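Session log. Operator J.P. requested a structure for one protein chain; no other inputs attached. Running the standard single-chain path with token output.
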Amino acid sequence: MDNKFKLNPKIQAAFIAAYGFNQEQKIWLKHYTDAAIAHDAKLFMRLGDESIQRWGMLRCIELHNAAAYLLSQEDLAWGTAVMDVATELNKLAKE
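Structure written below.
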């Protein structure tokens, strides 16, 4: 993984702390970022769906935004593309 785009770990921690995640959400964030780094689309989408069900759309967006501080630009772009596809699939399923 290319780390040249990643933030300093102290800055990452400060951004993450500002969201006020509980312990379960912090663990979920770790799994979410691991799935993005591994480019495991199935797990990544499942975690995204589960976060909406558990905590609502706003918290899901906050968790996704927090993940952005932990990922390289390449992994972030991959994750964003996967979530865009998942959103479109959900729209089609509702039609």
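Operator note: The radius of gyration is 13 Å.
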